[in-house]
Amino acid sequence: MNKIKTLIIDDESLARDLLRYYLSKDERIELVGECANGFEGVLAIQELKPDLVFLDIQMPKITGFEMLELITEPPAIIFSTAYDHYAIRAFEANAIDYLLKPYPYERAAVALNKAIEKINSKFPLSGVNQLIVSHDREVGILNRVVVKSGRKIQVIPVDSIYYLESQDDFVMIYCKEGHFMKQKTMKFFEEHLETTQFVRIHRSYLLNLSSIAEIQQYEKDSWVVLTLQGAKLKVSKAGYLNLKEKLKI
Amino acid sequence: MDHPVTTNRISAIIYWLFLLIPGILQTVYNSFYHLLSVSDSLLDGLIFGSVFGVLGIAVWYVVRYNDPEKSAQGQMIASHAAASLVFTTIWMLTSGILAKSIISDPLYHNYLYGELTTRILAGLLFYALLVGVYYIYVYSQHNQEKAQKEAELQKQIREAQLNALKSQINPHFLFNSLNSIASLTLTNPEKAHGMVIALSDFMRFSLRKQQNDMVTLDVELKNIALYLQIEKIRFENKLLYNFEIEEECKKHLIPSLILQPIFENAIKYGVYETSKPVVILCKAQKLQGFLEITIINDFDPESVPLKGEGIGLTNINERLTLIYGSSRLLTAELGDNNFKVTMVIPD
Q: What per-residue confidence (pLDDT) applies to A93?
C-alpha cells in the first residue's frame, strides 16, 4: 500500500517539531513537506498533492480556513490548533478530526487512523467542503477577503472593494487591487459584509456605497449607478429602494 | 443646570404663589394702618411684587455663576453682596417710578417716601431668602449628579476588573505555550525547563496582582520581560525586543498590568500577522515629574488583521481615567509600518 503523503502547516517551529516527531512513529505516513503559513500552504498543496494535511488555524496573514477556501480539491484535513473558539464545535461533525494543542501521541494516532481509513475508503472527501460551509455560518462580519489569481494570493480589505458581481456559481470581486474570482455565493457576501456599507442593487450586484459617483434613471423602474471608477451598474426596482433607504434620499 | 423656575411649570406656579403672600400682607397692612384706598394698596402690592418676581428670576444666574462646588467662599459672599445692592436698587427704582406714575393719590406718594428705608431692608432680606432657596435647589441637583456619577464609576471599575481577568488568562497564549513546552521536552529539555519556570513566574504575577494594585515600573517590566521571553521561545528570531529605561524611572509607581495589554497587542498584530522579524521597543523617561512610557512595534503593512475581540486601548484608557482623573494620558499613533503607544503617568 502507498504511504499517506502528509503535509504540516503551522507557523510555530516547535509545534512542527512535535508533530513531525509524532508522525515519524507511524510507518504508514510519509511527511512530504512543512509550511509556516497559509501562502506557502496553498502552493505546497498544489505542488505536492498531499493526501493529508495537519493544519493550524491562526497563522500570519491568512487563517487555516481562509487558506482552505483557495484550494479547489482539498485533501483530508486534521486541524491542530490551540484555538478553542466556539467555531471549532461546529466542525466536529465534518472535519476528519481536530486536535487541541497540546495533545499526546495517542490522540494524534486516533486522528491518523480515522484519516487513513477515510483516504483508503475511496469515497470522495466531502468533509472539507461541508466544513467551510459550516464555518461560513460562524463567521461574523468580514473585514478581509482572501483571493488567488494564478500563483499570487491577495488579502483584500473589504474597504477597498468597489462592488461584487455574481457570475454563475462564483462571485467576481472588483477592488483597488484588480478583479478576482471567489468561489462563494452572492448571498454569502450579502450576509457577511457590513450592511451599512454594501447594498444589493441588482440580482447581480452588491455595491460599496462609497464608490457611487452618480445614480441615473434611464427608464421607468430602471436606473444605473456610475461608480467613481467609471463602471456602469444596472439597478433593479428593489435595488433602487434599497439604495434609497441606505442613502436616506 | 436648568433654571428651576422658567423650565418647570409647577415650580413657576409655586414661585409666583409665594410672592403673593408678602403682596397680600402688604396690601392689608397699608389699607388698615396707612388708610390708603384698597385699590391703591392692591396696585402697590402688585407693582412691587411683580417687579420683584421678574428680577428674582434673573437672580438665578448670580447663583449659577457662584457654584459652591467651584467658587471660593469669599468670592461668593462678595458677589452676592454686590448683587443684592444692585438688585434692591433696580427693584426700588423700577417699582417706585411705575407706582408713582400709575397711582396719583398724593397721600400714597408721601407714604412711599416714608416707607423707603423699610422697603430697601425688605429688598435685601427677600434677596437673601430667594438666594437661599436657589442654593437648596443647586445642592439637591449636585447630589443627584454625584450619585449618578458614582454609579457610573462603579460600573466602569467592575468592567475593568472583568476585562483584566480575561486578559490574564489568555487561553491562546497559554495553550500554545504549553504545546511549545511539550515539544521542547522531547527535543531540548533544558529549554523546556526554562520555559516552564518563566511561564510559572508570569502566571503567578498576573494572578496575584489585583486591578487596583500599584507596582513599580521595574516590577511591571520584569513581568513583561517574562512574557516576551516565553513568546521568544515560540517565535525565535521573529520577535526582537529592546528596553531603554532611564534609571530614575524604575521606582515610579504605575497601575499593575497596565502595560501588559499593549505588549499583547504588539505580539498579536505584529508578530502573529507576519513572517518577518518584528521589533518591539519600550522606552521610559521622566518629563517634568511625569513618567512617559513609549512602546513602538513594527507591523507588516500588507497584513489585514482580523477584527480583534481583545483588550483594547480603550480599556487601558478607561483605567487610567478612573485612577488619575484625566482621559488624555494615553495616545496611539499609527505609522506606515509601526504602531506607537505613549502613556503618561503622573506622580
A: 40
Q: Mean of the pLDDT values across residues B273-278?
A: 88
In this predicted complex, what is the ipTM? 0.82
SS (H, E, C) B162-175: HHHHHHHCCHHHHH
The mean pLDDT of chain B is: 85
- Within 8 A of A36 by CB-CB distance, chain B residues are 275
Q: Same domain, yes or no, for A186 and A134?
A: no
Min Cα distance A244 → chain B (Å) is 29
The DSSP code for A209 is G
Residue B142 has φ and ψ, to the nearest 5°, of: -60, -40
Q: Are residues A128 and A163 located together in one domain of the fold?
A: no
Is the CB of A58 less than 8 angstroms away from the CB of B272? yes
What does the alpha-carbon distance between residue B317 and residue B329 come to, in Å, rounded to a whole number?
7
Confidence class for position B300, pLDDT limits 50, 70, 90: confident
Q: Which residues of A touch B299 (CB under 8 A)?
A: none
Q: Report the C-alpha gap between B129 and B216 in whole angstroms.
A: 55
A93-112 core/surface letters (b: 16 or more CB in 10 A; e: else): ebbbbbbebbbeeeebeebb
The band of B307, judged by pLDDT with boundaries at 50, 70 and 90, is low
Q: How many CB atoms lie within 10 A of CB A61?
A: 23
The shortest C-alpha distance from B306 to chain A (Å) reads 7
pLDDT of residue A125: 57
Of B175, B236, B274, the CB nearest to A102: B175
- A58 touching chain B per CB within 8 A: yes
Which parts of chain A have pLDDT scores under 50? Answer: 86, 89-90, 92-93
Residue B309 has pLDDT above 60, yes or no: no
Do residues A210 and A221 lie in contact, with contact meaning Cβ atoms separated by under 8 Å? no
Residue numbers in B near A21 (CB within 8 A)? 183, 186-187
Question: Does A16 share its domain with A119?
Answer: yes
Contact B182 A18 (CB under 8 A): yes
All domains in chain B, ordered by first residue: 9-162 (no CATH), 169-345 (3.30.565.10)
pLDDT at B130 over 70: yes
Q: Residue B273: closest CA among chain A residues belongs to which residue?
A: A60
Same domain, A33 and A111: yes
Please write the tens of the pLDDT for every residue from B237-264.
899 999 999 999 999 999 888 898 899 8
Residue finishing a domain among A123, A138, A153: A138
Determine which of A9, A13, A14, A22 to mutate to test the interface with B (most B C-beta atoms within 10 Å).
A14
* Nearest chain B Cα distance for residue A212, angstroms: 24
